[in-house]
Amino acid sequence: MLDRLLARFRRDLALDLGTTTTLIGLVGEGVVVDEPSVVAVDRHSGKILSGGRAVGRLARQMEGRTPESIHVVRPLKEGVIADFELCEAMLRPLLRKAQPPGSWAGPRVLVGVPGRITKVERRAVFGSTLRAGAGRVWLIDQAKASAIGCGLPLAEPLASMVCDIGGGTTEVALLSMSDTVAAESIRAGGDSMDADVVAYLRRHYSLKIGLPAAERLRLEAGSAWPLPEERSVEVAGLDAVSGQPRSATLTSEEVRQALLESLESIVEAVRAVLDRCGPELAADAVRRGMVLCGGGSLTPGIDRYLSEHTGVPCRLAPRPREASVEGMLIALEQFDRWRAALQSSDDG
Predict the structure, then answer these.
(1) Which of 2, 21, 96, 149 makes the best surface tag, with the fewest CB within 10 Å?
(2) In CATH, what number does 152-188+259-320 get?
(3) Could you tell me the pTM of the whole model?
(4) Residue pLDDT, tens place only, 61-78
(5) Class assignment of domain 190-258?
């Protein structure tokens, strides 16, 4: 009786707690929160600025523009929680923002997690989400959520392959008959690509830039595959020796060269998944192709690069950034069908 009464005043939420971005979906509404996974903290007191409201977009605006007394922090690293208190402090206002007026009961929240996450890290996700205001929490593997969101025919005896390139991790999975046949999770993604660009500029141009600038270079000027017309762009930063502001001209070929290490890691992850499945499913995957999603899949030309280096045709999901959240919303709407794929804190 109490559960039925509470159900009238609470809503079900899908949470993609990413290293770089947090997306929250509301059943019946779609994605309602899309914020950077950052908080702005006073170094001396350890408190979040603006009365605890300096999270997400507001904190991101401060990044690189604050005095030494203010520190902009990411509570997650490589897809897992690195700072529990800051993660909870970030989640609390975002979960409130996702709920419509009148929802006073703690929402039921489905969270996507990397496939390689440990039991300790899973418990940390349960605990942080509950302390942030959730009434009930379930977890689902990120790759499976993305496959559901991409509309792959998971219930059929065919290979459905997905590659979710997030900020801190890349999840590759081959699924059939609603279950995961083989999967690989690596600590490489959009963040590692941006770090590679930063390192390239410092090594070859003695120029220091931040990760946000590197991300803009990767998405706007870079590519994973040769372009019909290669581009060049001027990038501003600090001279690594003198500390003085200056700029350099970088070509799309150079950005592509900088990305090679991270791209090769993703290729190896795809090959590892194919090696672990049977020949029939591997043949299915080559015939049916692989869907790319996640923010890192927006890197220009990455679909062509992975196709050429893995032998598996690749295509971009219709809404690559939202694929995981959309899959979790479908799982919540069809809860009885997908309950076996979810893990609750009550499951032990």
Answers:
(1) 2
(2) 3.30.420.40
(3) 0.91
(4) 887 777 778 888 999 998
(5) alpha beta
